[in-house]
Amino acid sequence: MAWWTGLRRGPARARMMVFACLVGLVLAGAAGAAQAQTVELVVSSYGGAYDEVFKQYIIEPFERANPGVRVVLAPYATVTNLLAQRNNPVLDVVQLDDFDIIDAADQGLLEVLRPGNFTHWDDLYEQAFLKGSDGQVYGLTNVFGAWGIAYNTERVSRPATWRVFWDSAYRNRVAFMDNWIPDMLMAARAFGGDERNMEPAWQAIADIAPWVKQFYATFSAPQPLLESEEVWLASWFDGRTYALQARGVPVDFAIPEEGGILIRGGLGVVKGSRHQELAEKLIDFAMSVPAQQAFSREFFYGPTNRTVTLEPELAAKVVYGEEDLQQLLVPDWPYILQQRAAWTDRWTRATIW
Fold first, then answer.
1. Axis-axis angle for helices 181-190, 333-351 (nearest 10)
2. Could you give the C-alpha distances from 32 to 29, 37, 267, 329, in angstroms and in order?
3. Which residue, of 136, 148, 301, 328, has the fewest CB within 10 Å?
4. At CA 19, angle to CA 268 and CA 83, rounded to 5?
5. Half-sphere exposure in the Cβ direction for 188 (13 Å, CA)
6. 200-220, pLDDT tens digit by residue?
7. What contacts 24+ positions apart, CB below 8 Å, involve 26-29?
8. Alpha-carbon distance 291 to 311, whole Å?
9. In order of start, what are the domains of the chain with their CATH numbers?
């Protein structure tokens, strides 16, 4: 959710070429340093601050615990990238959003994870397991987040419903993520629909489109809008909202009565990896208590390991425990992925006015 967001929206051929070049540079740079090492494990990641925390709390202790292993971070990889390299994979572990893990699994791009190779398997919440349409586990979630409403506490009372975006008092003061399935789903739920009845969403979005300040294209876009008070309400992530709050901006985060969307970042083993067992071992390491506590402290991500304990103040902000999880919807991604093209078309038509 950083620099690569824009890249994901570019032409598929261009994305693949850029990805291949970047991976080549990363591996070439690591080759000399890795000559004395026994095994090199290549892991795609999100870039920026996330990579720094991933290195400090996962890669470095993992390498210390496994002499002779070197972990190399590669640029963010999309499902399209995995398809392009399926006959000669350069990645061992891929990090993706839950729906992309499921999509990649259903296209035969990931290995089925083997419970016997994981020490933390039984410690994970049920929502941490990312399953393909065949019911098998292809990915594990290392961070939980929530998609809900970020709001200006000086301009707006704590929102009780997603319908607050349609309140005429906030015309030209609201923002939605453009063409983003969680916003489509919550618009449907706010007006009596659900993922199998999306007509209420398309009508509601068409009604509000003229006074939406911005249908934003990158996950970081609401930050300046909320800081400048151009926008008082935005659909956004809990962690990014709390990070902005920590900088003194008068914002807070709410999960209204209709609920929110559970955001899950996961890891999977790329089909054809020559180091499947070691890749599973690294994923297991990401489920450890110290690693999960670090991501909670640094990014306000919720732990997916039920044995993790957090300080009360932090626990109150992140997705933490069964009660929080029950407030958040886990979409039926295998079904939704089949509808995605049609939904994208309907959203586009609803937001053009």
1. 80
2. 7, 10, 27, 47
3. 136
4. 50
5. 20
6. 999 999 999 999 999 999 999
7. 26/72, 26/73, 26/74, 26/75, 27/72, 27/74, 27/90
8. 15
9. 4-144+262-322 (3.40.190.10), 145-261+334-351 (3.40.190.10)
Query: Are 229 and 152 contacting, i.e. CB atoms less than 8 angstroms apart?
Result: yes
Report residue 236: phi and psi, to 5°: -165, 180
CA angle 208, 162, 263 (to 5 degrees): 110
Measured CA to CA, the distance from residue 318 to residue 64 in angstroms comes to 30
Question: Considering the entire predicted model, what is its pTM?
Answer: 0.88
Token representation of residue 124: 């994970």
Handedness of CA 234, 157, 165, 264 (dihedral sign): positive
CA 202 distance to own-chain centroid: 24
Which of 138, 109, 115, 140 minimizes the C-alpha distance to 127?
A: 140
Tokens representing 34 are: 């890795």
Q: Please tell me which residue, 11 or 205, carries the higher pLDDT value.
A: 205
Q: Read off the tokens for 104.
A: 């990649």
List, for residues 189-204, the tens digit of each pLDDT value.
Answer: 999 999 999 999 999 9
Q: Within 13 A of 70's CA, how many CA atoms are on the CB side? A: 15
